[in-house]
Amino acid sequence: MNYSFWKSKASVFKSYFTFGKVLIDKTAISVGLRDRFTYEFDGIENLKNLLHEKKGGILISAHIGNFEIAEHFFADIDFDCQINLVTTDLEVSVIKEYMESIAVKKSNIKFIYVKDDMSHIFDINKALSNNELICFTGDRYFEGSKFLEAELLGKSAKFPAGPFLIASRLGVPVVYVYVMKEKELHYHLYARVAQVKKRDAQGLLNSYVQNLEVMLKKYPLQWFNYFDFWDDIT
Asked: How far apart are the C-alpha atoms of 128 and 108, rounded to whole Å?
C-alpha cells in the first residue's frame, strides 16, 4: 500500500486486532446472536441468477473479511443452496470441534477435500450437477503445488492454479464473493460476476486479482493472509 514505516507498523497491529474482532463476531453469530448484527447485500442478484441457470456455480473468495458467516444471512433473502468449500485442511482441530459443539445451528457448508489422486474433481462435478455451489479461496498458494503467477499490488506473486483451472474448464458461472466487516456490528457482502473464457485460467486469475485489489484497497486491514505472500522476506 506504500504506507510509511510507522503507518505500516500501526496497520499491522490494527489488522491483528480486526482479525480478533472478526473471529469473535463469527463465534457470536454461531451461538445465536445473529440478530445483533446488521448486513447488506451488494450483488446478491448475481448469486440468484446463477442458481436460476441450474448449472451450479463456482464462488471464488479470499482470506479477507469473514466469508464463513455468509450462510447465516442467506436464509433471510430466500437463498437456499448447498455450499461446498474446497479445502486442503484434512485436520479436525480442537478449536473446530469446540465451535461445532457450541453452535446453535449446525453449519450447512460441506467440505470437499483436495486429494492427490484428483478424486475431488468427481465430487465437484457431482455437486455442480445438483445445482450446488463450489467455493474456493484463490489467494493461498502452498509450496510444491501447481501455481499461476500474477501481479498483485505492484509485485508478482504465486496463486494456486487449481481454482482457476477448474473454474475455466467446467463451463459454469463464476462469481467473486466477499463478506467484509464494517463499522460496529455491520457486514457487507459483495458478489461480482466473473467474465470467464473457456480454458483461459490465466485470464480468470488476472480478473480475480483486479477484483481482489479493489477490495484490499477499500478494506486494507482485512486481508488475513499471514504468510510471505510475495516471497521476498530475507
From this structure: 16
Q: Could you give phi then psi for residue 184, rounded to 5 degrees? A: 55, -120
189 CB neighbour count, 10 Å cutoff:
23
For residues 201 and 78, the model is more confident at: 201
Sign of the C-alpha dihedral computed for residues 43, 159, 146 and 70 taken in this order? negative
State pLDDT tens for residues 173-189: 899 999 999 998 999 99
pLDDT of residue 81: 74
What is the radius of gyration, based on Cα positions, of the chain? 18
∠ CA 119-136-143, rounded to 5°: 75
Q: How far apart are CA 64 and CA 25, in angstroms?
A: 14
Collect all residues with Cβ–Cβ distance below 8 Å to 169 and sequence separation of at least 6. Answer: 198, 199, 201
The number of helices, as runs of H, and strands, as runs of E, in the chain is 7, 9
Tens digit of each residue's pLDDT (9 = 90 or more) over 93-118: 566 666 667 676 666 778 888 777 77
Report whether 106 contacts 32 (CB < 8 A). Answer: no
The residues with which 41 forms a beta bridge, in sequence order, are 189
Cell of 38: 446488521
Examine the pLDDT at 59 and tell me if it is beyond 90: yes
pTM, entire model: 0.88
Tell which residue, 212, 138, 118, 131, has the closest CA to residue 172. 131
Bridge partners, residue 188, by sequence: 40, 180
Q: What angle do CA 92, 98, 103 make, to 5 degrees?
A: 115
Q: How far is CA 178 from the centre of its chain?
A: 6
Pair 145, 165: CB distance under 8 Å: no
